[in-house]
Specification:
Length: 530
């Protein structure tokens, strides 16, 4: 080996060793310049080794750490530090400081930054522009929310198709299904009916790749987050190899479609059409024409934007419905609960002559309540509102603690959702907890809006943060809520579910939780519904 090559190799090794050591020190041992008066949960004696142990523990045991900290500090009005192995420690505020948290300017505390690092968006979202452009936001807030009523009939049609395919139509024998995988398929189908429409929404290859892509983003993000920053450029593409392959497979069918849309008709001609193509690809093209930057409407970026929206629409709703299926199967009074839902749904439909209008769906409050109760217990991200200090000079908490630039600060939803002082019998699944006629106390605070006889699923508050809360609460929750409510109504109208003796508990992975992927339930089509 030449002397120069040996020198380059030695420098490379030195660089790798230094950046890895630096990363290990920062991630596991450092106090991150947080005030020494802030206690770290799970850390005894405050030694740096104890901090490293607690950080390692957060990989599988964040649940214990979050709940312990909530009881020990949050309920006494004190902040504490929660170790987090993937994205670094978080300062958890007591609920009394929620108002302060929500009032801070985005130039001081920013929620986007936390979401971006949770999803390692710069690596998992395929293109840096997809992370920062606001086309997604426009489509979600406009077409996917304001036009909900326009495609209700399509969603119902696809729900029927997807359930017949996944849960079957046998009215005599029970059919065993895996709750997670059947919901993954159902949600992928009904979302894609809106997102890409016919014929792609029935293309089995396309759907399979879209499902796989959506499933792996969060897991890959967690592993990428644990790689030293200096090595991410090399290692992230290796970690992402599966998803990039799924994306490429789908590009084969999506790219020709986008090219065709971009060439004909022209955007100006299209605006004159009375019945333009309505799907995500078209909305994304249309909104990018509102921007001055032509690089926001290349074939490549439109294609990548579509994959990213697939992740948003598939993954969270799938986990929500997989949780719901287990809650239903293990609820001892399921048949009377379904009878109540059927009564409410059929009553409302009778009033509209059988049409699923937006208003009729809004009045079906028992659907909101059942889903809200399931999400209260099993919301898939533990954090409720988490922000990052972006002000260069840091920020001072109401408690007087000063947090430096880059610190994550906020509240976790999961212990609040399971606090008996807020939700009596919080560990019990009470499906009509959020219906005022359910005979139970309505849970409210300054921001929970009670409409008619119950609280809409989409309403967020400091007591219900499954969609987060405040300015950055999930913008897709209106779209998701419509799907979830229609799915629950469909199940109650068309299926029986065989009781299971207990509800399998969820598994935690850092600060997310999900139902065991292999949990099975048995279902049977109701007589007269085939
Ligand atoms: C049951 C289904 C869903 C759940 C439980 C859910 C939950 C959440 C949560 C907890 C956040 C806040 C993350 C954070 O900043 O810490 C969030 C943000 C977001 N969600 Fe959802 N989501 C769901 C469905 C959807 C759908 C269907 C879409 C798209 C149509 C969507 C698009 C988004 C976007 C774009 C954000 C980022 C908002 C921002 O930072 O301002 N979500 N979601």
């Amino acid at each position: 080996m030449h002397l120069s090559s040996a020198l380059v190799a030695a420098l490379l090794v030195a660089f790798l060793v230094t950046s890895t050591v630096r990363y290990i020190y920062t991630r596991y041992f450092s106090r991150h310049a947080l005030p020494s008066s802030l206690p770290w949960i799970g850390v005894e004696g405050g030694s740096c080794f104890s901090r490293a142990r607690a950080t390692l523990r957060s990989f599988w045991h964040t649940r214990e750490l979050v709940f312990e900290g909530y009881e020990k500090y949050s309920k006494k009005g004190l902040p504490f530090v929660l170790p987090n192995i993937t994205t670094g420690p978080e300062v958890i505020l007591p609920m009394s400081q929620m108002e302060w948290l929500l009032k801070q300017k985005e130039t001081v505390l920013d929620q986007n930054e936390v979401n971006r690092s949770f999803l390692q968006a710069d690596y998992t979202m395929l293109h840096p522009k997809v992370v920062t452009d606001t086309v997604h936001e426009d489509v979600i807030r406009k077409e996917l929310t304001k036009m909900l009523g326009d495609y209700t009939a399509d969603v119902i049609d696809e729900i029927d198709y997807a359930f017949r395919k996944n849960w079957g139509v046998d009215t005599k024998e029970w059919t065993e299904i895996t709750s997670y995988y059947s919901m993954l398929d159902i949600i992928a189908r009904i979302s894609n009916r809106v997102i890409v429409g016919f014929p792609l929404c029935r293309d089995e290859g396309y759907l399979s790749h879209a499902k796989q892509f959506a499933r792996w983003v969060v897991v890959e993000a967690a592993f990428i987050a644990m790689v030293p920053k200096t090595l991410k450029g090399i290692l992230a593409p290796l970690i992402r190899i599966l998803d990039v392959n799924y994306f490429r497979q789908n590009s084969k069918v999506v790219v020709p479609l986008i090219k065709k849309r971009l060439s004909s008709p022209s955007i100006e001609e299209k605006k004159k059409l009375t019945n333009p193509q309505d799907d995500y690809i078209q909305w994304s093209i249309d909104h990018s024409y509102d921007r001055k930057d032509p690089s926001l409407r290349t074939v490549d970026i439109i294609n990548k934007r579509l994959s990213v929206i697939q992740f948003a629409v598939i993954q969270s709703s799938t986990i929500t419905l997989a949780n719901l299926a287990l809650d239903l199967a293990s609820y001892p009074e399921l048949s009377s609960m379904f009878a109540h839902i059927r009564f409410e749904v059929l009553n409302e439909l009778q009033a509209t002559g059988g049409e699923w209008t937006k208003d009729a769906l809004a009045r079906m409050v028992s659907l909101d309540s059942v889903l809200r109760e399931s999400m209260r217990m099993w919301g898939f991200v533990s954090r409720g509102v988490m922000k990052e200090v972006v002000a260069k000079k840091g920020v001072t908490l109401p408690s007087g603690h000063h947090l430096p630039h880059g610190t994550k600060v906020g509240v976790h939803a999961s212990p609040v959702h399971r606090d008996d002082d807020i939700y009596p019998d919080a560990l019990e699944f009470k499906p009509f907890r959020f219906c005022s006629n359910g005979g139970l106390r309505m849970v409210d605070d300054y921001s929970e809006k009670v409409v008619g006889n119950g609280i809409p699923l989409v309403t967020t508050s400091s007591n219900f943060m499954a969609f987060s809360h405040g300015r950055h609460a999930c913008p897709g929750r209106f779209f998701a809520s419509q799907q979830l409510k229609l799915v629950l109504a469909y199940i109650a109208l068309n299926y029986d579910i065989k009781p299971i003796p207990f509800r399998p508990t969820n598994l935690w992975f850092v600060n997310t939780q999900g139902p065991p992927l292999d949990s099975k339930i048995s279902v049977r089509r109701r007589e007269g519904t085939v």
